[in-house]
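Support request, please re-run this one:
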Amino acid sequence: MSDDKHQLAVELKLMNGDGEAEQMAINYWALNSEGGWRYTVREVASTAKISQIALTQRLRVAVIARDPESPCDQCGFGMTASTRTELDQNRRLSATRSMVCTPCRLEVEEAEKQAAVERQERLVAEVQQRFGHRDQEPVVTQDLTLRQAVSLLALFRNPIDENYTCSIPLKAWLGEQYAARSEDGRKRITELWNAGLVTVHPSTPPSAFGWVEKDDTERAGLYVDAVRWTVRGSGPTGSINAALVKSVRTAFAGSWPDSWQFGWADEWDAVMLEEATAYLELCMEDHNLDFNPGERTRDVLADALNYFSLGALYNFIWRAARDSAAYYQRGGVPRKQAANSAIGRIERVAERALAESWDVKAYRRDRRLPWSSVSTTFFVSLLGIGDPMTITPENVTLAKEVTPNESDETEDPPTEGDSV
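Re-run finished. Output below.
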C-alpha cells in the first residue's frame, strides 16, 4: 500500500506507541478521492498479515478513532468508533437524535446513581423524623374504639419474632392474611397510623418509603403494606407491643366499655362484608371473569348480610358466579357485562329467599380462603364464636361463657356439576 498522505474519515489517537497499529489504522480509515473507503478490510488485513478479526481487535485496544461528523452532545468530542459499521451507525443516529459518548454516559449514570442514593438517604431520614418511633405516651386500651382494638390485636398477635419487636409487613404475611382483602388491611393500618396509635419501626427497609408530590413539593411518604409497625409507647418496642396484646386480650375477656357494647354490631357488619367480598372475588376468578367490586357490590352484599348468614351468602355468591359464567359462555355479551351480572343475580335471589322464607343452605368456609387475622380476632378472641358461617348478629350472646359454635348445619360449597 502507498505511504502517501491519506485523507481519513476519523481523527486518530495512538494509545500505546504501537507504530505498526497506527499504520493499520491509517489504512483502515483512509478515504479515496470520492469519499469512499480507499482499501477494503481484507486488503488492510492482508497487508498487515493478520486476520480481519485480529485486525479489528488490535485497532480497538491500540487506537481511539473519533468522528468529527457525529459529536457528543455533552463534551463536543467526536463519537468513538471501533469499526466502519459503527461509524456508519453513529452518523445515521446523530442525524435524528442526540449522541452521548461512553465516558460522558458513564459519568452521567454515576452522578444519577449517587443522586439516587443521597435522595433515598434523605427520604429515610425525613420519614424517621416525621413518623419514626420515639418515646410517647402509651396507648390506653380502654380509650380505643372497638375497631382500633381489633385491628391492633390482629396486627401484633402474629409479630415478626418471639420478642414482639414489630409487626410483619402486610405484604409479607403468608398463609393467613391480616385482613380478608388487602384493601381493607391497608385501610385499617392507615386508620391506626392517622390516629397516632402506631409508628414506623426503625428496622423498616428503605424500599418501604417513597416521595409523594403534593402542591409542587416533595414530601416523604411510605407504603403502608411494606412498613414494619410498632405500637406507640415508651421503652423497647417489644415490651410495648407485648403489653398491648396482653391488655387488649384482657379487655376482650372483661367488662367492655360502653362504646364497644354499642359498636360491636357495626364491626360485625364491616368484617362480614369484607369476607363476603373476598369470596365473591374468588368465585369470579374461578370462572375467569374479571371483576372489580364497587359501591353497588358492597351495597348488595351488605343488604343480604342484614338477613342472611355468611354461609347462606356463600350459597348465593357461588350460584351467581356459576350462572354468570354460563351467561358469558352462551355468547353475545362482553365478559365484563357477564361478570357484573352476578351482583344482580345475588340481589334477586336474596330478595326472593327473604320474601318466600326459604330455608337456605349455609356453605362451609372455602378452604382456599382461610379466616384472616382480623376475622379470627373479632369472632373468636372477642365474641367467642368458633365458626361464624351460620351466625347472624341477633343470634350472638355477649356473655363470656358462650362456647364456640360447632354446628354441623353447614356444607361445603359444591363443585361444578353438583346440584344446589
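Residues 400-408, 416-420 have pLDDT under 50 and may be disordered. Residues 135 and 268 are 34 Å apart (CA to CA).
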